[in-house]
Amino acid sequence: MKTKEMVYAALFAALIAVLGMIPPIPIGFIPVPITLQTLGVMLAGGFLGKKTGAISLILFIVLVALGLPILSGGYGGLAPLVGPTAGYIFSWPIAAFLIGWGAEKVWPSLKTWKLIAVNVVFGVILVNLIGAPVMSLITNTPIWAGLTGSLVFLPGDLIKAVLAAVVIMQARAISPVEEKVLGA
């Protein structure tokens, strides 16, 4: 891994930590709050590409495990990684990898709607399809109830998917994916 890629991975882990400083919105009927950190996941994958995007989220999770209070609401340590939020958190590197993979595939003919589609499939649907069943297993509730409860995340996640796509389109000229895919 190049020094530049390591710096980008660290910067995006820090960006996701900063997004965690914005207070979460608790939801009364499920134990997972609404946060802005999934916006960072989409930005990391789409801007950095599959490898560096996934590494930035792995680094973020390691920092959480070490006890840094960088999850939304000031949480850190092992408790969030084994509690109801575990599935969502552990889905982030997978989502960043797949968003990066999708972004790299469409990069030569990049359009905002293509990035939105990649973000929705891998940053919204995939994260919820991993996070909700794990939350259900940990809280001993039916998986169907967890999936139904996670529908509350969809409006905000769709807004984050659009916002991430717009930001990536504006910054595409300085993206490492630009260098990698187009050799710029």
Q: In words, what does this structure look like?
A:
With 184 residues, this protein is an all-alpha fold. Helix content is 71%, strand content 0%. It contains nine helices and no strands. The chain has helices at 3-19, 37-48, 50-65, 79-82, 86-106, 112-139, 143-149, 154-171, 176-182. Helix 1 packs antiparallel against helix 2 (37-48) and helix 6 (112-139) crosses helix 7. The longest helix has 28 residues, at 112-139. It is globular, with a radius of gyration of 16 Å. The two termini are 19 Å apart. The model has no long low-confidence stretch (mean pLDDT 95). Its main location: membrane. InterPro entries: BioY (IPR003784).
Topology at a glance:
Elements: H1 3-19, H2 37-48, H3 50-65, H4 79-82, H5 86-106, H6 112-139, H7 143-149, H8 154-171, H9 176-182
Low-confidence stretches: none
Distance from N terminus to C terminus (CA atoms, Å) equals 19 Å
Strand content: under 5%
Helical coverage, percent range:
over 70%
Biggest beta sheet summary: none
Number of strands: 0
What class would the helix/strand composition place it in?
Answer: mainly alpha
Number of helices: 9
The whole-number mean of residue pLDDT values reads 95
Q: Which geometry do the CA atoms define?
A: globular
Rg on CA atoms, Å: 16 Å
Quaternary structure annotation: single chain
Task: List the helices and strands in order.
Answer: HHHHHHHHH
